[in-house]
Write a sequence for this structure.
């Protein structure tokens, strides 16, 4: 490490940069060997990064990988470099459906919203980028949870399913049944499970078979006519196909 660099700051960047190119993550021992630094000095850095969600650890293997906060931080930059094509797709969804479209990732048991396009309707969903909601209570969250196995979902909610409204799913087996339907190609949905008088539909987004994000459209109940629902589902399917195609383009990553 160059003498004019702050040592701890350099270590943080070294850890993030090495994990960003590691396909399977790295253990603390592997990081220590790669960086030529004692585990005792790396542990407090890694622990803090994990607490702040910049790293996440796979408990069975002990391997660390980049966490949700890295993606949220990167989204602010990638909105102008790399993610603009995704936001164009979202804008098109809103133009056709005239309803709010959101883009989110899974952060432990929560949805972390990292992209949003508002509709121009006077009455619409109120939300903001950076917000977190329990994944089990939202359509976009269910789409994200469909990328996990049942055991992983149960482990996320070992203390029970969080409740946002009286309509939020409280039964784990019912949630797992819905996730199975999504895995088999269904569209995730919820009605007043997160917000009164609001329904939502969502699709998972996959890269090389793995769910990496999800896209949703939210509609006030008084506008939920059959024609509107069909239009929302059609737009989501088209957006899903287009965004998944974009992930195969090298500049996207």
């Amino acid at each position: 490490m160059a003498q004019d660099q702050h040592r701890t700051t350099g270590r943080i960047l070294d850890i993030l940069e090495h994990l960003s190119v590691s396909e399977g993550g790295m253990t603390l021992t592997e990081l220590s060997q790669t960086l030529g630094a004692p585990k005792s000095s790396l542990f407090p850095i890694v622990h803090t990064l994990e607490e702040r969600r910049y790293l996440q650890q796979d408990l069975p293997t002990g391997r660390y990988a980049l966490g949700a906060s890295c993606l949220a931080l990167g989204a602010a930059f990638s909105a102008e470099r790399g993610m603009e094509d995704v936001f164009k797709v979202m804008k098109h969804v809103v133009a056709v459906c005239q309803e709010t479209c959101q883009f989110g990732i899974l952060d432990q048991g929560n949805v972390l919203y990292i992209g949003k396009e508002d509709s121009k309707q006077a009455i619409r969903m109120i939300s903001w980028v950076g917000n977190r909601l329990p994944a089990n209570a939202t359509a976009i969250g269910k789409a994200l949870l469909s990328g996990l196995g049942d055991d992983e979902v149960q482990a996320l909610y070992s203390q029970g399913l969080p409740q946002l409204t009286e309509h939020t799913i409280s039964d784990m087996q019912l949630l797992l049944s819905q996730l199975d339907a999504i895995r088999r190609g269904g569209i995730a949905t919820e009605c007043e499970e997160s917000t009164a008088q609001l329904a939502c539909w969502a699709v998972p987004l996959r890269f090389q078979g793995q769910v990496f994000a999800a896209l949703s459209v939210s509609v006030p109940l008084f506008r939920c006519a059959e024609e509107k629902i069909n239009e929302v589902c059609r737009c989501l399917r088209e957006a899903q196909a287009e965004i998944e195609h974009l992930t195969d383009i090298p500049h996207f990553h």
User: Anything to note?
Assistant: Strands lie at 55-58, 63-66, 100-107, 110-117, 132-134, 188-191, 198-207, 210-220. The chain is about 40% helix and 20% strand. The chain has a mean pLDDT of 87.
